[in-house]
Amino acid sequence: MARNPARRAALLDAAIEVLADEGARGLTFRAVDARAAVPTGTASNYFTDRDQLLSQVAERIFVRLTPEAGSVDTAMAPEPSRELVVELMQWMARRLTAQRSCYLGLFELRLEATRRPDLRARLTEVLKSDLDANIRLHLTAHMPGDADTVRLLYFALTGLLMDHLTVPGMHDERALDSIIEMVVRRVVPER
Fold it and tell me: With contact defined as beta carbons under 8 Å apart, do 99 and 164 qualify?
């Protein structure tokens, strides 16, 4: 198996684009090779099978969606308040929509996970860990609300981004930021 980390990352990035554009059924080694503009057969030198490719695509998506070091601390610096939660949720939505292919790829992986138990187990583990980390961060920062507040915000943002990225006219062209503000004001208690 080939070991060039830069080439592997490029292949995984190409796979994310294929997944976002063509869905899980379109994710083939040949499609990845074509998107990465590498010779046919290159992807099969890096991944033993489609399951390994899907698993590593999932890991690459989470790497790309992880905020830069220090950016969360900077975002959390102001005094905890409902207004800060609005700003944080809007910041998160901007980051995720800027990585449109990653987020759409994640939706595709979620669907594929309904048919692949190993992928489902891995996604469940990573998504649950991420949600748990967000809950801990919220509580440790003494933000208004509790763990269920964070869960509700997670559900709202996940659904909102799915609509925003897949059926953008769904919400009467309302700005994403204004919808997020409305959700936070209704879910997060005042201090």
Answer: no
The yes or no reply on domain 5-56 and CATH 3.40.309.10 is no
Distance CA 20, CA 16 (A): 6
Contact 176, 100 (CB under 8 A): no
- Kindly tell me if the per-residue pLDDT of 173 is higher than 70: no
Please state at what angle helix 117-140 crosses helix 100-113, rounded to 10 degrees: 130
CA distance 82 to 74: 17
Answer whether 0.85 is exceeded by the pTM.
yes
Residues 50, 112: contact at Cβ < 8 Å?
Answer: no
pLDDT the model gives residue 174 = 65
Distance of CA 160 to the CA centre of its chain: 13
Query: Given this structure, which CATH class describes domain 66-187?
Result: mainly alpha
Range with the poorest average pLDDT among 20-34, 35-49, 166-180: 166-180
